[in-house]
Design a protein that fits this description.
The chain has 272 residues and is α/β, with parallel strands linked by helices. It has 10 helices and 7 strands. Strand 4, helix 6 and strand 5 form a beta-alpha-beta unit. The longest helix has 18 residues. The two termini are 26 Å apart.
């Protein structure tokens, strides 16, 4: 289990938030594109055969993979029907198919699929899953022999400036918490061998805190924490948080926003 599961949203909350964000997602998905492109570049040697894209969203990664000659088919799996509807309307390759389902229930979702996948890929999606052990078990289950799992996910230092700014206001949980590196590695090793994790920090710059929070909302990635109580985002608290964040402006007058990214490469035990 994800030790932060009490602070993560329900499956229904995630599905609703990202469905609502589908039409605006690509307009503000700067971080997502950066992480996806780097994930794809780090795994060029893995791009072949049948591919499952977990948390396919608007279809960006799926479409990129479908354009590769060695890739024969790509299934985009997402929990948000709105995202799948948008992806279907944007991408029309004959290699592409789309599947509604929960990454924590892969064997059930793919029950009618007789074939296994040569690659399972996921870019900035599994951090929303409460049961990472179930995710990794399902991935290992659907991988073919010598198949690979390639993934980008968020680490706990993500949005640490925003966490700090809120900590100047109160002790409540205002920012999503993500799994620590050691826990992630240990959970992966329950199902995979040759587990390799590369950590990277991506720093974006914003003109205002309002722009940041609006982007997070449009991405469907604003605070989903189950502990976040009604009334904690009152005008007074919000004003104090903004004042604290303003003290972090750099020499160029920009507000820094950091994202900790873990890039995972792993093979199944059966592949060795």
């Amino acid at each position: 289990m994800n030790p932060n599961s009490n602070f993560l949203p329900s499956v229904q909350q995630v599905a609703q938030a990202f469905s609502q964000a589908a039409k605006t997602y690509d307009q503000v998905a700067g971080l997502q594109r950066i992480a996806a492109d780097r994930l794809l570049n780090k795994g060029v040697d893995l791009h072949r055969g049948r591919v499952l894209d977990i948390g396919s969203g608007t279809g960006y990664v799926s479409a990129q993979l479908a354009g590769i000659n060695l890739v024969t088919a790509v299934t985009g799996l997402d929990i948000a029907e709105g995202m799948l509807t948008y992806a279907r309307s944007r991408h029309h390759s004959s290699k592409l198919s789309w599947q509604l389902g929960d990454a924590q229930q892969i064997p059930h979702v793919l029950l009618n699929s007789a074939q296994q996948y040569n690659l399972v890929i996921s870019s900035l999606a599994i951090q929303w899953c409460k049961n990472l052990d179930a995710v990794f078990s399902g991935v290992a289950h659907c991988l073919a022999e010598e198949g690979a799992f390639h993934c980008a996910t968020l680490g706990p230092k993500t949005l640490h400036q925003l966490k700090w700014a809120w900590a100047q206001v109160d002790d409540y949980q205002h920012v999503n918490e993500f799994v620590a590196l050691d826990t992630l590695r240990d959970t992966l090793k329950n199902h995979f061998v040759e587990v390799d994790i590369v950590c990277e920090t991506i720093e974006l710059k914003y003109q205002s805190v309002q722009q940041l929070t609006q982007d997070l909302k449009q991405l469907g990635a604003s605070n989903h924490n189950a502990q976040a109580a009604q009334g904690l985002m009152g005008v007074g608290r919000l004003r104090k948080m903004v004042q604290a964040y303003e003290s972090l402006r750099d020499d160029e007058g920009q507000l820094p926003v950091s994202y900790e990214i873990y890039y995972i490469k792993a093979k199944t035990k059966a592949a060795i």
